[in-house]
Specification:
alpha/beta, four-stranded parallel beta sheet, two-stranded antiparallel ribbon, 4 helices
Length: 157
Amino acid sequence: MTEEFDILDYLRLDRMPHFLCPGCGHGIALRAFLWATHELGISKDNLAVVSGIGCAGRLSAYVDANSFHVTHGRPLAFATGLAMARPDLKVVVITGDGDALAIGGNHLIHACRRNLDMTCLLLNNEVYGMTGGQVSPTTSAGRLTTTTQAGNPEPVF
C-alpha cells in the first residue's frame, strides 16, 4: 500500500478507552494485525473478525469491520461456518490460549483439519488473565499463578 497507515481508520473510537492492562502485548498484536490488514489492502467491508471470551476475545470489539463476539471456546467453530457460507470474506479469528486450547481445543483441531481460507491469531499470555491469572493449558511449568502458588506442577501443553 502506498497510503500511510493510520490506526484510527481501523478502530471503533466509541469503544475507547480500551480495557488492556499496562504492559499487555494484546494491544501490540492488535496494532500489528490492523497494520497487516492495511498493507494487504483488505477492505473493512470484506473483513470479518471473530473472537471468543477472555482478554484476546475483547479485541474484535475495537475493530471497525464485521466483528463477531461469540461464546467461550467457539470462535473457530463460528468462523468455520462463516468462511464456508461467505467465501468472499477474509475471516480472521483473534483468540487466546484459554479460549482456543482449553474449552475450544477440539475446534482448533478440526479447523486445522478442514484447512479453510481463514486466519487464526492465537495470543498466548499463559494464564486466564481476565479472571485473575489462573493457570491455563500453556502456563509454563513452575510458573506462579493465583491457582498455582507453589508453581505450576504440570508440563506446558
